[in-house]
Amino acid sequence: MTGLSDSFQRPIDYLRISVTDRCNLRCIYCMPLSGVSLMPHDSVLTYEEIYAIAQAAAELGINKVRLTGGEPLVRSRLAKLIKMLAHIDAIDDISLTTNGTLLGRYAAELKSAGLRRVNVSLDTLKQGKFEFITRRDNNLGDVLKGIEVARTVGLNPVKINMVVMAGINDDELLDFATKTIDEEWHVRFIELMPSAGASTTASQFVPVSDMRKRLELSGELEPCLPGVGNGPAKYFRFPHATGTIGFITPVSEHFCFSCNRLRLTSNGKLRLCLLAEDEIDMKQPLRSGISSAELKQLIEEAVARKPLRHHLAEGYMPKDRPFSQVGG
Ligand code: SAM
Q1: Is 320 helix (H, G, I), strand (E, B) or coil?
Q2: What pLDDT sits at residue 1?
Q3: Which terminus of the chain is less hemmed in, N or C, by CB atoms within 10 Å?
Q4: In the chain, pLDDT over 70 holds for what percent of residues?
Q5: Are 244 and 224 in contact (CB under 8 A)?
Q6: 34 alpha carbon to ligand 1 midpoint, in Å?
């Protein structure tokens, strides 16, 4: 194995796989209230097809996989896919991004299948606001329980991702940060991105520089190293805190120069950047009986087309798919 790198010499070793475009929530920053027109079942990759792509990608140098969606836990028998991926020798890290509503139910099974760790999206600690942001009457308590169960079964570190929105949940920055003092909470504050179909607006954007200033009024933030994973967050902690605080700046300070990822959509397109529309279809060639060598060639072609950076700062935003269909 020689390792994959793109035309800008960035090593590409990470594949995010969206296993479904379906979601049981309708978060205001992610999906329209009416939902999105769902892909017909037969256009969604089977687990065998996902496995074939992951296997080919692993032979080229991918060694980390993250499952996402839509909401990955609404796809039936996800543990089966995890077990299949765990059998690929070169893949040494399988993780999951979830809204946490079903995590308590599945965490133990996912762990035994080979899942290593989990990120949970959670934007508020208040039930009423949870219903407002997710536009569903699910119980926030289920998400909090899911986080606890995930930790207990060893899906650590559990990272908690909060999309910060002015006037909606930015008043809870300190509440989330305070949780890191005594508990193993690894919170990451994410800048709101514009997204196709979202109900949020630019006026709700809060730059990380503001978030940091507000938290620093309550205590010094010491830089620290990430626990596991090598994503784009910059990590800090309050002195002597058990957990950590991360900041992710897709808008105010892009991190494209260290981008190491490819994305596979649930209908089988290799997407080269979350924020650019270019995609390469893998499903049709797979269903036409492509060889594993040809599959690898397609992946290499996709990697060669990876753009240098996204252009959010210049006002460009892809209109083709909401993040629920790309796997944000
Ligand atoms: N359903 C899963 C979940 O809730 O984590 C996985 C899919 S969701 C699209 C993945 C991530 O995308 C979430 O962590 C969410 O924070 C992020 N996301 C979606 N829309 C976003 C936006 N407009 N700005 C910033 N992050 C966004």
Answers
A1: coil
A2: 47
A3: N
A4: 98
A5: yes
A6: 17
pLDDT of residue 328: 67
Question: What lines the ligand 1 site, CB under 6 Å?
Answer: 23, 29-30, 68-69, 71, 97-99, 121, 161, 163, 190, 192-193, 195, 198, 323-324, 328
Residue nearest to atom 18 of ligand 1 (CA): 328
3-state SS track over 5-71: ECCCCCEECEEEEECCCCCCCCCCCCCCCCCCCCCCHHHCCCHHHHHHHHHHHHHHCCCEEEEECCC
Judge residue 226's burial from the number of C-beta atoms within 10 Å of its C-beta, 0-12 exposed, 13-18 middle, 19 or more buried. Answer: middle
Task: Work out which ligand 1 atom sits closest to the CA atom of 198.
Answer: 23
Q: Is the pLDDT of residue 159 over 60?
A: yes
CB atoms near residue 141 (< 10 Å): 11
* Number of helical (H) and strand (E) elements in the chain, helices listed first: 10, 14
Instruction: Look at ligand 1, atom 19, and give the residue with the nearest C-alpha.
Output: 30
**Sequence-ordered strand ranges (E) for 214-266:** 222-224, 234-237, 244-248, 261-264
Mean pLDDT within 298-306: 95
Give the model confidence (pLDDT) of 186-213 as tens digits: 999 999 999 888 999 999 999 999 999 9
What is the position in ligand 1's atom list of the atom closest to the CA of 161?
A: 14
Q: How far apart are the C-alpha atoms of 122 and 159, rounded to whole Å? A: 10
**What is the mean pLDDT of the segment spanning 165-178?**
98
User: Which of 97, 124, 130, 189 best tests ligand 1's pocket when mutated (most atoms within 8 Å of CB)?
Assistant: 97
218-274 pLDDT per residue, tens: 999 999 987 777 688 999 999 999 999 999 999 999 889 999 999 999 999 999 998
